[in-house]
């Protein structure tokens, strides 16, 4: 928990110092009250006392109470401000850190857990800071000060107070030992609930189409039930604390008055009055001592969960991204748009088997290199190594003759236009989606050209608002083919050295696919293209086709060469094209 406090700024430490001053003032004012009460009791019982003296003591008492209220409001305001700023900073830090993660780290934590850590976990820490800043500082000051006020009055009363505090600590200790492991589990179960809810919402259409609502509900109920059960256990244990504290407070009052009654009975005439007034003052201070411990208990309720949350936040913040950033921001001027794989092998983190093995090929500037092969043979994996979504396990991936891990990641990715297998659009407009990213072009002419090349102008111009038309989050108001065309436009609009299409043409009909490729050829002359495809028709004209089988290269060459030499390619070609098309 303490390590997370290093993210507090010096200005916030100053504010904490100021709030300590207010809290000390509040405690002092609170502890003045019993003194005035004792004065009033004494004055009331002393014959011949002036009414004005009683009123004066009452007014001072009221002023102390108002002062205590004002200082506590200010201290609470400062704590809320510090906690809100601190948690906002933590959220930004987590967001930035996750942005720097490779797919490996994201998969290790899981998306659902990263969401819980950025929201629920931060809220737990924020709550502890808001309450902790007031209570954690106030309680010890109050306890020590109140104990000092009552020491030396009567050892019998002190003993009763000591026993009460001892029992209180014992009960709190037992509760904490019981609930601490549950709190650890609670955050993991919240992750799990998030994961199930996310899966349900993203797969809603499929769930409905297959009438699988009850199956999903069962899954959700299991996660929900487990979370509820753990929550209930923790809350049931904690709920026993409050009645125990009330019992201890009432028991202590009773003990003080009982002891007082015996002491007063045994005292002589004049001492009786002093003892009575002492008893009232002592019982007030003793209550303050118990109150101080009660406040500490509140912290002990929040602390274990916040401690677990802080640990989970720190885990993310302290994770070193496995992709180390290189330092190169540009490549040699004479080698542009070149991609080379030298004996590259790759296995996914934690996997036993290599997904691709010993891959070597070169794509020179302006060339089109295509990858084809059966499902799951490793085509997407290969192209994902170029923008460093993962690093090669063995061998070298070079861009413009330089290993990709020597580039600054942003510089490397600015060289590329990448279109993923599943089209991804962001909430905004057509223009904001096409002119997306670091070196996305803001020029409306570039956006219009890219949309035209990607065969999207027809439908974009018909949309309400045209290029400024609204695009829903995830492109939900567009069809699959329309989304894919806009993602292709986004890659083209960057005017990159290298265009990577990861099976991006499959969502398009044959006619659009053909028109798009012929426009692309005209518009992106000089741009190196790497195309993963399922259809031979899409890649037939490529300068080089790499045929993959079970993660290895089964053949490389042009369509005609492969038709002569590669049986795997022939098989794919005969299954897709007629004899006339192949002729
Ligand atoms: N994130 C991942 N973690 C572990 N294994 C993965 C991951 N992504 C893919 N794989 C595995 O790697 C293999 C190759 O996957 P890849 O997506 O590269 O195939 P592909 O040839 O592009 O397939 P498709 O044509 O169906 O898109 C598959 O067997 C798959 O199970």
From TrEMBL:
Its main location: membrane. Keywords: ATP-binding, Cell membrane, Membrane, Nucleotide-binding, Transmembrane, Transmembrane helix, Transport. It is found in: Cell membrane. Residues 18-305 form the ABC transmembrane type-1 domain. Residues 339-575 form the ABC transporter domain. GO terms for cellular component: plasma membrane. The lineage of its organism: Bacteria, Bacillati, Bacillota, Bacilli, Bacillales. InterPro entries: AAA+_ATPase, ABC1_TM_dom, ABC1_TM_sf, ABC_transporter-like_ATP-bd, ABC_transporter-like_CS, P-loop_NTPase, Type_1_exporter. The chain crosses the membrane at residues 12-29, 54-84, 127-147, 159-180, 237-259, 279-302. It is a multi-pass membrane protein. The keyword Transmembrane helix applies. Pfam families: ABC_membrane, ABC_tran. SUPFAM superfamilies: ABC transporter transmembrane region, P-loop containing nucleoside triphosphate hydrolases. It comes from the Bacteria. It comes from Fontibacillus phaseoli. This is ATP-binding cassette subfamily B protein. GO terms for molecular function: ABC-type oligopeptide transporter activity; ATP binding; ATP hydrolysis activity.
């Amino acid at each position: 928990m303490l390590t997370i406090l290093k993210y507090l700024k010096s200005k916030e430490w100053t504010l904490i110092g100021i709030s300590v001053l207010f809290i000390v003032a509040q405690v002092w004012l609170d502890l003045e009250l019993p003194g005035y009460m004792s004065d009033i009791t004494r004055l009331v019982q002393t014959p011949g006392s002036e009414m004005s003296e009683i009123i004066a003591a009452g007014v001072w008492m009221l002023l102390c109470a108002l002062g205590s209220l004002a200082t506590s409001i200010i201290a609470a305001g400062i704590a809320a401000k510090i906690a809100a700023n601190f948690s906002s900073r933590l959220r930004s830090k987590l967001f930035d850190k996750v942005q720097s993660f490779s797919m490996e780290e994201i998969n290790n934590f899981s998306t659902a857990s990263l969401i819980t850590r950025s929201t629920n976990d931060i809220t737990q820490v924020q709550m502890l800071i808001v309450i902790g800043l007031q209570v954690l500082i106030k309680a010890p000051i109050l306890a020590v000060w109140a104990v000092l006020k009552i020491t030396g009055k009567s050892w019998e009363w002190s003993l009763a107070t000591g026993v009460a505090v001892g029992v209180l600590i014992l009960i709190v200790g037992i509760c904490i030992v019981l609930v601490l492991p549950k709190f650890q589990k609670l955050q993991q179960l919240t992750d799990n609930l998030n994961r199930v809810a996310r899966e349900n919402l993203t797969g809603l259409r499929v769930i409905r189409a297959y009438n699988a609502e009850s199956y999903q509900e069962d899954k959700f109920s299991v996660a929900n039930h487990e979370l509820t059960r753990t929550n209930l256990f923790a809350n049931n244990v904690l709920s026993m604390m409050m009645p125990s504290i009330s019992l201890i407070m009432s028991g202590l009052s009773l003990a003080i008055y009982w002891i007082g009654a015996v002491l007063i009975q045994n005292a002589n005439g004049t001492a009786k009055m002093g003892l009575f007034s002492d008893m009232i003052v002592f019982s007030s201070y003793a209550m303050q001592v118990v109150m101080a411990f009660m406040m500490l208990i509140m912290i002990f309720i929040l602390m274990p969960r916040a401690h677990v949350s802080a640990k989970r936040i720190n885990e993310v913040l302290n994770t070193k991204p496995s992709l180390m950033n290189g330092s190169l921001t540009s490549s040699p001027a004479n080698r542009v748009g070149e991609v080379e794989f030298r004996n590259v092998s790759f296995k996914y983190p934690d996997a036993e088997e290599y997904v691709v093995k010993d891959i070597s090929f070169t794509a020179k500037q302006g060339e089109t290199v295509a990858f084809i092969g059966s499902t799951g043979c490793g085509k997407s994996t290969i192209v994902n190594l170029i923008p460093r979504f993962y690093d090669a396990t063995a061998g070298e991936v070079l861009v413009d003759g330089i290993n990709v891990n020597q580039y600054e990641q942003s510089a490397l990715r600015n060289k590329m236009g990448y279109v993923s297998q599943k089209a991804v659009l962001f909430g905004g407009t057509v223009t904001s989606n096409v002119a997306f990213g670091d070196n996305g072009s803001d020029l409306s002419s570039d956006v219009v050209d890219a949309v035209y090349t990607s065969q999207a102008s027809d439908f974009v111009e018909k949309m309400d608002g045209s290029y400024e038309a609204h695009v829903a989050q995830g492109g939900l108001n567009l069809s699959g083919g329309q989304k894919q065309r806009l993602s292709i436009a986004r890659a083209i609009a960057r005017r990159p050295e290298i265009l990577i299409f990861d099976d991006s043409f499959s969502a398009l009909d044959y006619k659009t696919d053909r028109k798009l490729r012929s426009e692309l050829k005209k518009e992106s002359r000089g741009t190196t293209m790497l195309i993963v495809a399922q259809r031979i028709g899409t890649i037939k004209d490529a300068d080089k086709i790499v045929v993959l089988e079970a993660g290895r290269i089964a053949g490389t060459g042009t369509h005609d060469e492969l038709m002569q030499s590669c049986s795997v390619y022939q098989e794919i070609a005969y299954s897709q094209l007629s004899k006339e098309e192949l002729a």
